[in-house]
Amino acid sequence: MTTPRSFYSKERQNEGQGSQFVGMGKDLYDTYSVARQVVDEADDALGGTLKHVMFDGSQEDLTRTENAQPAILTTSIAMLRVLESERGFKIEESCKHALGHSLGEYSALVATKAVTLHDAVKLVRLRGQAMTKAVTNKGTTAMSALVVRADKLESLVTAMDEIKASLPAGELAEIANINSSFQVVISGTVRGVDHASRMLQAKKIAARAVDLPVSAPFHCSLMQPAADEMKVALKDVHFKKPVINVISNVTAKPITKVEDISDLLVRQVTGTVQWHTSIKYLRDQENVHDYISLGPGKVLANLLRKEYPLDFVKTVTTADDIQQWAL
């Protein structure tokens, strides 16, 4: 292809909270045998606890982080496998790079054959459980999405360093996600996040802040116990070299060594998701302006379209999208 294409698994910010819905992927499961194989494999890997939650459980159960993460991963990979079997899609021929937002990084690694689906769903189930356990008193933590004023992203990053240093002992506010030049998510204690939000608005850096209904303060240092647990689990996982470049959430650059994958996934638990920087790297360094966005929801695709309206973003979210597929 003359234009480099990037494939990414698009999970909604904050571990897929909000992207999942009961019945997602059911159209694929009922229509395509390869999708049934994917869902059944993931279900077996988790001891038969996933499929019922995905297709017949309550929204409340599905939204629990330890269920939402493997469910979104499984649905994304089912979509990919159907594209491969029904439309002849080959990621190594059609794309040069892959990336995923937070949880989606695991989808990107499965898609590029760096890790098996069996291992990945077990890892993200553990990841969700560990993240939930990391905060014993969830009423004291928060996340907030900030609308960043034009050309103020760099100022926000600098201001957050100053705000973090000035917070009272026991309070915390850190940047969890940099999703675009106009959207940043901060994470930490309730008082820390509220103070940071107010200060950024008072400084005319953020236009407004929206509290997010999440179960834990993802991607901040409060998640260190979860990172420690993931470090132990990842020691037993065998990774292979991805068939195309995978862009790391924490470095915003391609993963160059297989032995680095585990460490990067551990660092991702507490580190900032550098999504905006990852997209800039692809556009500025790799001349990427053409994207395939796969998975439930269109949040990241819409962010990309808003940021770069002249770039091409093809979304795949349902069986209908696959039936209408044309590269």
Fraction of residues in H or I helices: 40-55%
The value of Rg in angstroms is 19 Å
Order of adjacent strands in the largest pleated sheet: 7-2-1-8-9
CATH level-4 homologous superfamily of the largest domain: Malonyl-Coenzyme A Acyl Carrier Protein, domain 2
Query: What's the pLDDT, averaged over the residues?
Result: 91
Cα-to-Cα separation, first versus last residue = 11 Å
What is the CATH top level name of the largest domain? Answer: Alpha Beta
Give the low-pLDDT segments. Answer: 9-17
Content-based structural category: alpha/beta
Number of domains: 2
How does the overall form come out from the CA principal axes?
A: globular
Total number of beta strands: 9
Structure keywords:
327 residues; alpha/beta; Malonyl-Coenzyme A Acyl Carrier Protein, domain 2; Alpha-Beta Plaits; 5-stranded parallel beta sheet; 4-stranded antiparallel beta sheet; 48% helix; [acyl-carrier-protein] S-malonyltransferase
